[in-house]
Amino acid sequence: MIVLGAAVAAATLVAGLVLALGVRRLRTVRSQVVATALVSLCLPLVAVSVSGLIMFHMGADLGILAVSAAAAVAALSCALVVSSSIARRLATVRKGAAAMAAGSLTVRVPVDGPAELAELATSFNAMAESVERLFATRREVVAWASHDLRSPIASLRAMIEATEDGVVAPGHYLPAMADRVLALGGLVDDLFELASLDAGALTLEFEVVPPDRLVNRCLGGFAAEAERRRIRLEPRLDEGLPGVRCAPEAIERVLDNLVANAFRFTPEGGSVVVAAEAVGDGVAVTVEDSGTGFDPATVDRATEPFWQHDGARSHDDAGRSHAGLGLSIAKGLVELQGGSLLVGNRPGGGGRVSFTLLRP
Questions:
Q1: How far is CA 191 from CA 206, 258, 314, in A?
Q2: Considering the chain, what is the average pLDDT of its residues?
Q3: Is 337 exposed, middle or buried (0-12, 13-18, 19+ CB in 10 A)?
Q4: CA angle, 183 then 184 then 186, to 5°
Q5: Which residues pair with 276 in a beta bridge?
């Protein structure tokens, strides 16, 4: 008896392993579910039946075979019902994916069924929303870029026509034309840098530098403008700040963008503060101003390309358009160096933008 049981158990195990390998090769979920049900139920029943043929009389054998057949039919029916439900829900997701591939970005699938399928549907809907938002952002970027490129080009065309018609002396518009060309070049450079960040094609050279050196160098570049507009430009640097691992030119670009934004929305006689303090495993740099601040309802959009809060698409004294790419580029540069950038308002009023740099 013991030998018989061991032989039947060993044969059942070997057969189960062979059948499992076969089930894995089936192409559809439905067929795998049905095959698994058949294997898991029929295999032990077949083993019991074989044992019964040896151990019992023929009359009992027929009963064992009948019970085995009934159990197998029940298992098969249950597997067909379950597999049909799973296949139906998977087909819904498949149709949604096909519709999205065909260009329908608003397609969504119902979230129901077992936890795994509901999670799959939720992930699909999240992906669809991200793709739809990405395409909407792309359309908006193209529209704003066209606007910002069209304005200086139209201005240049008008000045050239006036010069050609003899309305003004040939050199009359040269300074203004040079300024428009400078604005166009800056916008093209910004767009190229933003595209490089999005594509992950921007490479940086890292080194360890003291953060106070970066801050002081940035403030030195804005000293003349601060004096002209009577804006108090103040550094607040903690003593003994640790060195940070970063790309100095990229961080100077970030600081220039943040301070320029702060100046843009700070009235005459206001203040701009650049602070740096040690936090955790790095250094936090914060730029605060006493200007209008960010609209709390749309502050999450502040780092989107071409976004301007409170309709603040403005021009400086030279007539250069502020395209709204500074915060987007700053965020990308900071994240590329392992840090993060946050936008908000300071308690006393005005805007606050902070970013972190990591220690080596």
A1: 23, 17, 18
A2: 78
A3: buried
A4: 65
A5: 237, 285
Is residue 329 within 8 A of residue 194, CB to CB? The reply is: yes
Alpha helices in 200-325 (DSSP H): 211-228, 248-264
**AA identity, residue 339:** G
Tokens of 347: 């308690």
Predicted local distance difference test score (pLDDT) of residue 233: 92
φ, ψ of residue 272 to 5 degrees: the values are -130, 125
Joined together, the tokens standing for residue 318 give 């030279």
Alpha-carbon separation of residue 269 from 118, 233, 266 (angstroms): 57, 10, 8
CA 329, CA 340: separation in Å to the nearest integer?
12
Per-residue pLDDT reduced to its tens digit, 170-224: 888 888 888 888 878 877 777 777 777 777 777 888 999 999 999 999 999 999 9
Q: How far apart are CA 232 and CA 264, in angstroms?
A: 14
State the amino acid at position 331 in one-letter form.
K
Q: What is the mean pLDDT of residues 321-340?
A: 80
Q: Are 242 and 283 in contact (CB under 8 A)?
A: yes
Q: What's the gap between Cα 122 and its chain centre?
A: 17
Indicate yes or no: pTM above 0.85: no
Let me know how long the chain is: 360
Residue 83: in which H helix or E strand, if any? Answer: helix 58-101
Q: Who has greater pLDDT, 193 or 27?
A: 193
Q: Whole-angstrom Cα distance, residue 47 to residue 53?
A: 10
The DSSP result for 306-342, as a single string, is T--GGG---B-TT--B--S-HHHHHHHHHHHTT--EE
The DSSP element (H or E) to which 206 belongs, if any, is: none
- 248/212 Cα distance (integer angstroms): 12
CA dihedral angle for residue 94, residue 99, residue 104, residue 110, rounded to 10 degrees: -40
- Phi first, then psi: give them for residue 246, nearest 5 degrees: -160, 175
- Cα dihedral 186, 188, 193, 194 sign: positive
pLDDT of residue 352: 92
- Provide the β-strand partners of residue 343: 353
* Tens digits of residue pLDDT in 182-191: 878 877 777 7
